[in-house]
Amino acid sequence: MSEYTPPQCRRIVLVLCVLCGGIWLVGCGGPEGPQRRAVTEPGADFTHYTGLAWPAAAQVVSAGDIWLDFVGDGEFHLVFDLDHATLEQWLAEPPPWEQLKWKGGPVPDEISWQAGFGVKGMSADPAGGGPDHKISEVEYQSVYESKQTWYVAQDRGAGWQHGQILILDLEKNRVWFSRWDY
């Protein structure tokens, strides 16, 4: 004989259904899954997130914005080429986010594994190479490992679960920006 009465059994089944439904929603980002937003104004987004003016000479290489609406996890990234003089000018000025100074690469692992730039992790396109397929995994890895880069990063939470990074690659005249929440 069961130790639960029929009303208790109904409550248990109801609780299990609610829990399983919640796990389903969290696991896939809600009924529609991850939401990809086309980055139509990269300059405005870049200025909003970094406080730096968008240079007229900037040429976007890759841009992506993907979020799980239900829980708010996601990543915005922007990679663009720029003239060397502007990169040098930015390095001569204080970095964004009230950081004291730019740091020389390589980027520490505790930060680098968070930002996927459309190549790895949540922001990765299932076909690979970012939403526009212009960044290789080799490029992605080399920007983190390079001693020729300068970066500034901000931990907006605890343990880099919410953060942002701006990397200046003076060797390739390329800027890498990512903002994530996980």
Briefly characterize the structure:
By secondary structure, this protein is an alpha+beta fold.
Low-confidence stretches: 22-30, 127-131
Characterize the overall form. Answer: elongated
Percent of residues in helices? 25-40%
DSSP strand count:
7
Mean pLDDT: 79
Strand content: 15-25%
Number of helical segments with 4 or more residues:
5
Radius of gyration in whole Å, from Cα?
21 Å
Category from helices, strands and their pairing: alpha+beta
Largest sheet: 7 strands, antiparallel
Strand order of the largest sheet: 1-2-3-7-6-5-4
Span of the ends, CA to CA: 46 Å
Order of SSEs: HEHEEHEHHEEE
Q: Could you characterize what this model shows?
A:
- There is one protein chain.
- This protein has 182 residues and is α+β, with helices and mostly antiparallel strands.
- It contains five helices and seven strands; from the N terminus they run H-E-H-E-E-H-E-H-H-E-E-E.
- It has helices at 6-28, 42-50, 84-92, 109-112, 137-145, and strands at residues 35-36, 59-67, 74-81, 103-104, 149-155, 162-169, 174-181.
- A seven-stranded antiparallel beta sheet has the order 1-2-3-7-6-5-4, with helices on one face.
- Strand 6 and strand 7 form a beta hairpin.
- The longest helix is centred in the first third of the chain and has 23 residues, at 6-28.
- The model is unreliable at 22-30 and 127-131 (pLDDT under 50).
